[in-house]
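Design job #97: recover the sequence.
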């Protein structure tokens, strides 16, 4: 780092410290006028108190859970934009400068979507760290040792979820597992790096995710078939299956192991695919929550509605609500053709719906398709589900050193049979290349509009092959600005973050 710039930033921070308080200050919390042993802040002995009692800990843990439901921009909205519209499943949907680059591959460091995501992910990391770091020092005997371990485990699973999303987007990102100290004139040289951290390598990020999950499993709550909203042992196992499928920690035997452990936890494909995303007969509520294949979901009920439906289509609880602007993540012609080629009527009708609109960005206004897996203010957001993990097991069986193509085909056929499709042919089952293509097709149709497609292409090194050819065969897609290449597997670090933190380095190619 340039030493002149370093000293300038240090001096600026120090000046802020002096002006704010002549002895010490915090950049992450407001100082209190008076302290006591029951006030969150600093007690009479000068010790920092993060949580005054068990109730404060429980409240903070609930804050972590609320992020899944309440902070939908980075947890769901942008996740689908990147996962589907930056792949061949969807168009951006609107022509806004913040979303169109995901469709035509013109993303750069100024993109406001990525800046929002980075900022909010790091906020979430800070929330998780606060509980993990300070829970053991809470002076409240009603908070038992078992509860401390469980709450810490849940926070570690939450942190692992955040870093998994971040590392797949950006690769090298800062791994922060502590809470920064207050800056004083005496410790500024020591504390400075905690406020302006360097990036860890992609492998180091995955290792931290792995560590968090393995440490969490013994103390996390068990799967509850009647409540799939918790950061449970099963959520940790699902994430472990997913990280072991990725290159830095790739271990296909462990993918299979954790997929099998999820089956032992009681997970299975829901018999009726329409239960996953459907509405009840009266169109007043979700058809079913806590299905046998839902691993983690954010649930919504009347009165605390899921506003993200405004961004993707109609809210079937209030049909005309917020339906005056073009929506994000519009199904692509290429995806629709893929459903049609397979004769996949059930999953198509659960994934795509047609409405009449007042705009015609991609299709005629009188017959405009929308993504349909989030269709009402009471629909659940399913973050992880068993079909994804089961198909990852099939992928592992295909890709491991000693492939078992027949076992993989059995899994794929199970997923296909649920929606009335025929089994894979013997010619496909007997050829590894054909099985990889069959797997990618199955994952595409099964998981459409669940934010998975882009990451599937990345994981299996298919980005250039698939994405550089889709523009020629998809007549509705905006013209490609830049070709996809080896640098496209990572998103650009937001320029605003580079400006704030001189220790961050931009990813190659941007």
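Job complete. Output follows.
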């Amino acid at each position: 780092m340039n030493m002149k710039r370093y000293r300038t930033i240090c001096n600026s921070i120090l000046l802020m410290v002096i002006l704010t308080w002549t002895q010490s200050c915090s950049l992450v919390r407001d100082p209190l006028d008076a302290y006591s042993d029951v006030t969150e802040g600093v007690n009479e002995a000068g010790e920092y108190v993060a949580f005054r009692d068990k109730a404060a800990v429980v409240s903070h843990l609930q804050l972590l859970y609320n992020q899944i439901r309440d902070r939908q921009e980075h947890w769901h909205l942008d996740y689908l934009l990147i996962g589907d519209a930056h792949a061949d499943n969807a168009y951006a949907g609107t022509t806004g400068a913040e979303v169109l680059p995901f469709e035509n591959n013109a993303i750069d460091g100024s993109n406001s979507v990525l800046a929002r995501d980075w900022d909010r992910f790091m906020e979430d990391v800070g929330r998780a760290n606060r509980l993990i770091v300070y829970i053991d020092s809470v002076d409240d005997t009603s908070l038992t040792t078992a509860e401390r371990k469980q709450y810490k485990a849940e926070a570690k699973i939450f942190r692992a979820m955040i870093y998994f999303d971040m590392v797949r987007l950006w690769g090298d990102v800062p791994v922060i597992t502590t809470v920064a100290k207050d800056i004083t004139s005496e410790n500024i040289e020591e504390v400075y790096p905690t406020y302006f951290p360097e990036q860890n390598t992609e492998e180091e990020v995955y290792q931290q995710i792995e560590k968090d999950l393995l440490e969490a499993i013994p103390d996390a709550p068990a799967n509850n078939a009647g409540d799939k909203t918790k950061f449970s042992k099963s959520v940790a196992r699902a994430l472990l299956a997913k990280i072991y499928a990725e290159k830095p920690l790739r271990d296909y035997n462990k993918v299979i192991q954790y997929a099998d452990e999820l089956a032992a936890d009681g997970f299975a494909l829901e018999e009726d695919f329409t239960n996953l995303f459907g509405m009840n007969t009266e169109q007043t509520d979700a058809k079913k929550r806590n299905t046998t294949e839902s691993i983690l979901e954010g649930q919504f009920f009347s009165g605390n509605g899921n506003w993200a439906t405004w961004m993707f289509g109609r809210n079937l609880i209030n049909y005309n609500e917020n339906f005056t602007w073009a929506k994000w993540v519009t199904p692509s012609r290429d995806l629709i053709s893929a459903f049609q080629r397979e004769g996949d009527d059930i999953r198509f009708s659960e994934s795509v719906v047609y409405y009449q609109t007042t705009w015609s960005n991609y299709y005629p206004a009188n017959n405009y398709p929308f993504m349909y897996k989030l269709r009402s203010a009471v629909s659940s957001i399913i973050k992880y589900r068993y079909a994804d993990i089961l198909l990852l097991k099939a992928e592992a069986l295909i890709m491991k050193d000693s492939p078992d193509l027949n076992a993989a085909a059995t899994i794929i056929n199970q997923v296909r049979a649920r929606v009335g499709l025929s089994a894979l042919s013997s010619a496909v089952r007997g050829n590894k290349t054909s099985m990889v293509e069959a797997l990618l097709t199955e994952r595409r149709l099964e998981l459409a509009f669940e934010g998975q497609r882009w990451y599937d292409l990345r994981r299996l090194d298919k980005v250039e092959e698939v994405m550089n050819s889709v523009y020629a065969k998809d007549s509705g897609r905006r013209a490609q600005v830049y070709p996809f290449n080896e640098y496209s597997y990572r998103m650009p670090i937001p320029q605003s973050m580079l400006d704030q933190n001189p220790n961050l380095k931009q990813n190659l190619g941007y």
